[in-house]
Design goal:
Elements: E1 4-5, E2 8-12, H1 19-28, E3 32-35, H2 37-45, E4 51-52, H3 54-57, H4 72-79, H5 85-93, E5 101-104, H6 109-117, H7 125-133, H8 139-149, E6 155-157, H9 163-172, E7 176-177, H10 179-207, E8 216-217, E9 232-233, E10 240-244, H11 250-263, E11 273-279, E12 282-289, H12 292-302, E13 310-314, H13 320-326, E14 331-336, H14 341-347, E15 354-358, E16 366-371, E17 374-379, E18 389-390, H15 398-412, E19 419-422, E20 427-431, H16 437-450, E21 459-462, H17 470-477, E22 482-485, H18 492-501, E23 505-508
Parallel strand pairs: 2-3, 2-5, 3-4, 5-6, 13-14, 14-15, 21-22, 22-23
Antiparallel strand pairs: 1-7, 8-9, 10-15, 11-12, 11-13, 16-17, 18-23, 19-20, 19-21
Helix pairs in contact: 1-9, 6-7, 8-10, 12-13, 13-14, 16-17
Length: 516
């Protein structure tokens, strides 16, 4: 476990930057160098003797380079414990040479993913996937892990940034390394392998290969803003048919996703048709009525100002009467399960208007977000409420319960902190994206007042608990008598006590719906 002199090295790297000086030092110190492919040719061009790895394995590089070093002679030379008599006997029996140094970097997986996602890539979806898959290194991580495991005897270099460090050690210590140095290099090798595996895992989770990678949508005009380039990876054609309009933009796609995630909460049309208007991923208008046209009119009335330039979605067929009503405002996208022919004639009168006939809902089991040089993955927020605990001063009426259920689903699709006010299955006010819950309530009441809605008899949904009873007091003063919230605050009893004292409904669901 003291200093060990390096007598043999296996060198196989993708990037050759900075390798030359180290190879010259190894040669000068009499180290036998084994190598493969492009690295072997690089060393030979330096005029330095190199032994092809196939001389050890007696196999050439096969399967297009996928198999070069995966062989017992190579891994035996790396993993054999020098102080173990059985290991030494077996290595001699099978002519396995000791390999004291492993210098390996890994195929550029993340770099290839970035290249394929860049605007300059013009290949097909199949070509993109093939390019990425071929950059999943197999032999490299295996050799790094083997050498790092056997760091008592073997030096492992997993990054070109350590070429100069090792070179300095070899010059200063006459070709030897200490145990502490070998262990430090081993830790780096394990870190490199961990990051590499995580990058591959994130890629597959994010793109949901192969289901969501059936198609690469090229040529998005730009990203969230005009100075940002963007691409979409996925299969839009499996979700809907585009019947009219320009190509979906980045923001169109984001809002369309929000619209479909909302309307999938309302697949049952037995109680009426649900129409919703989405703006910047928030629902700004929504209603449920007996006909599609009535639901559109009620949804629009909830906030006709915000509806301008929005994304519209409904769970029923767009007929001529509804198309004529919708025709009166400017919108970006309209999504429906079906369109009557005379309705399409009306709506197609504006060539840039995007009309989508949805076939099915996105089969999203997990949600993915890129942050902090990494990826967050979580289950989707399914369901409405976990329990229905009537904790207030009275039990809900049938109408109140229907409105509370409707309001809670809408609130789930607003950015936190979120408040939704509903009356007769119509969103009449909402507050979202505020830094305090009381501010969201103020916003929702102001919205209701702006469009002349009477909040007396409305219900209120909150995406998270009330930290104080101020929201209940303010809403009650505006005529609201029924509340739904998850509960869980240390001061739940303050709000509950107020409801009991004033004969108000308070439903606790035990299911929070934060949306950041």
């Amino acid at each position: 476990m003291s200093q060990k002199k390096i007598q043999s090295a296996l060198v196989s790297v993708f990037y050759k930057d900075g390798l030359e000086a180290l190879v010259h030092t190894l040669h000068a110190q009499g180290v036998t160098i084994y190598s493969t492919g492009g690295t072997q040719q690089f060393i030979e061009k330096l005029g330095i003797p190199v032994v092809p790895a196939e001389n050890l394995t007696h196999y050439p590089s096969i399967l297009g380079g996928r198999v070069k070093t995966l062989h017992p002679v190579v891994f035996g030379g790396i993993l054999g414990k020098r102080a173990d008599a059985v290991h030494r006997q077996e290595m001699q029996q099978y002519a396995i040479p000791e390999i004291d140094l492993v210098i390996v970097d890994l195929y550029p997986f993340e770099e290839t993913v970035s290249q394929v996602r860049s605007a300059s890539f013009t290949g097909t979806a199949e070509e993109a996937e093939a390019a990425i898959i071929e950059k999943i290194d197999i032999g490299g991580p295996s050799m790094l892990r083997a050498a790092a495991k056997n760091h008592s005897d073997v030096v492992v270099i997993a990054s070109k940034s350590d070429y100069a460090v090792l070179n300095q050690f070899l010059v200063e210590q006459e070709g030897a390394t200490t145990y502490e140095q070998r262990k430090a290099f081993a830790i780096k090798a394990f870190d490199v392998c961990t990051a590499y595996d995580l990058a591959i895992s994130n890629y597959f989770h994010q793109l949901q290969i192969p289901a969501a990678y059936g198609r690469v949508e090229n040529g998005l005009r730009y990203g969230e803003n005009p100075h940002q380039s963007a691409r979409f990876y996925g299969d839009l054609q499996s979700l809907f048919r585009q019947l009219n309009g320009k190509e979906l933009s980045y923001n169109n796609l984001v809002d369309t996703d929000a619209a479909l995630q909302l309307i999938r909460e309302f697949t049952d049309t037995e109680k009426g048709y649900t129409f919703a208007i989405i703006k910047h991923t928030n629902v700004c208008g929504a209603a449920q009525r007996a006909t599609v046209k009535e639901s559109w009119e009620a949804a629009l009335a909830g906030d006709p100002e915000s509806a301008f330039g929005g994304v519209l979605v409904v769970n029923g067929t767009i007929d001529k009467a509804t198309a004529e009503a919708i025709q009166e405002i400017f919108f970006e996208v309209l999504i429906a399960p079906a369109f009557d022919e005379d309705a399409l004639t009306i709506l197609k009168s504006k060539k840039n208007r995007i009309l989508l006939q949805w076939k099915t809902f996105p089969s999203v089991i997990t949600q993915v977000k890129s942050i902090l040089n990494g990826t967050l993955v979580q289950d989707t927020d399914e369901g409405n409420y976990k329990v229905w605990n009537e904790a207030g001063g009275r039990i809900t009426t049938t109408e109140e319960k229907d409105d509370l259920i409707f309001a809670n689903l809408l609130c789930k699709h607003l950015k936190s902190n979120a408040i939704a006010l509903v009356k007769n299955k119509q969103l009449i006010g909402k507050g979202c994206g505020q830094t305090s819950r009381i501010d969201s309530l103020r916003q929702s009441l102001e919205k209701a007042a702006q469009f002349k809605f009477d909040t007396k008899g409305a219900v209120l949904a909150s995406d998270a608990f009330f930290p104080f009873d101020d929201c209940v007091r303010m809403a009650h003063a505006a005529g609201i008598e029924a509340f739904i919230q998850p509960g869980g605050s240390v001061r739940d009893q303050d709000s509950i006590a107020y409801c009991k004292a004033h004969n108000l409904v308070m439903v606790l669901t035990e299911q929070r719906h934060f949306r950041h």
